[in-house]
């Protein structure tokens, strides 16, 4: 007797092809991360200094480029590892979850499946936040004599404060990653359908840049709170809401001051996501 639950051969073949494609997405995402960090790290360091000390872009750039040129790429290893792993997880998990949801719930609306897959993929990225935590300390001038490099910082934090210190600032990262991933993948799909008549690389970079501008604006308060939560080593933990409220008060109850540094961050994000999207699409098609 033939089981009525047997999977048709065509469906099994298609499922196998989708799983193979999902595995390639992990590789393509990681390669796009390498390209992204090499291009964007100096600008990211300047913006980080602005967020930390609430100074002008010119003063932050003067500190980073003129006074600290020889250590310009100090702290690059955590974001390099983080970006490779983050983008690998983001694109790979999104493809994997999308495939699984389509097979498990074929009657669901495609955009619902896409949004759910994107949120889960963004949440998976948060597992790598210790790299972001260490990057914050290595870029802070106050800790240059305390932590020699990435591995030394990890060891010192663990020995002196325990494993939980690696995850200080987790909440804003979860919110940021989950919701921004949903926005990225849903809007990217809409823009690809509407952007006709442009060469592929130009279209991909343009779409990524526009999405980067939107995401940077959406994410900026999360990043401000995260930076100030993570600049502390040891001691009590401050909640995300409390930290953001204290920053709001300390900056004269001005939303504009909370967004200080948002404009150069927007340009950095446009460049970053333009490069990520274009290079990801290139590697994805090359590996297919």
UniProtKB/TrEMBL annotation:
Alphabetical list of InterPro entries matching this protein: MCP_dom_sf (IPR023395), MCP_transmembrane (IPR018108), Mito_NAD+_Carrier (IPR052465)
Matching Pfam families: Mito_carr (PF00153)
Membrane disposition: Multi-pass membrane protein
TM helices/strands, residue ranges: none
UniProt KW NAD keyword: no
GO cellular component, one term: mitochondrial inner membrane
GO molecular function, one term: NAD transmembrane transporter activity
SUPFAM superfamilies with a match to the protein in the record: Mitochondrial carrier
Sorted UniProt keywords: Membrane, Mitochondrion, Mitochondrion inner membrane, Repeat, Transmembrane, Transmembrane helix, Transport
Subcellular compartments: Mitochondrion inner membrane
Solcar repeats: 20-100, 109-194, 199-286
Family: Belongs to the mitochondrial carrier (TC 2.A.29) family.
Protein name in the entry: Solute carrier family 25 member 51
Taxonomic source organism: Macrostomum lignano
């Amino acid at each position: 007797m033939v089981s009525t639950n047997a999977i048709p051969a065509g469906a099994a073949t298609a499922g196998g092809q989708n799983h193979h494609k999902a595995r390639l997405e992990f590789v393509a995402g990681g390669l796009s991360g390498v390209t992204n960090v090499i291009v964007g790290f100096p600008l990211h360091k300047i913006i980080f200094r602005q967020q930390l000390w609430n100074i002008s872009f010119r003063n932050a750039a003067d500190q980073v480029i003129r006074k600290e040129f020889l250590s310009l790429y100090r702290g690059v290893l955590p974001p390099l590892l983080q970006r490779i792993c983050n983008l690998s997880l983001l694109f790979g998990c999104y493809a994997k979850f999308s495939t699984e949801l389509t097979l498990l719930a074929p009657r669901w609306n495609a955009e619902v499946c896409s949004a759910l897959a994107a949120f889960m993929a963004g949440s998976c990225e948060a597992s790598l936040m210790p790299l972001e935590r260490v990057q914050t300390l290595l870029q802070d001038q106050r800790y240059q004599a305390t932590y020699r490099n990435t591995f030394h910082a990890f060891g010192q934090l663990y020995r002196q404060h325990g494993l939980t210190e690696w995850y200080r600032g987790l909440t804003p990262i979860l919110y940021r990653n989950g919701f921004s991933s949903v926005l990225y993948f849903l809007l990217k799909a809409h823009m690809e359908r509407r952007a006709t008549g442009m060469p592929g690389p130009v279209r991909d970079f343009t779409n990524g840049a526009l999405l980067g501008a939107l995401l940077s604006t959406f994410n900026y308060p999360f990043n401000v709170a995260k930076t100030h939560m993570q600049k502390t080593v040891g001691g009590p933990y401050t909640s995300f809401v409390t930290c953001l409220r204290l920053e709001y008060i300390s900056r004269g109850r001005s939303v504009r001051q909370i967004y200080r540094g948002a404009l150069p961050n927007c340009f950095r994000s446009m460049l970053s996501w333009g490069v990520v999207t274009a290079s990801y699409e290139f590697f994805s098609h090359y590996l297919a």
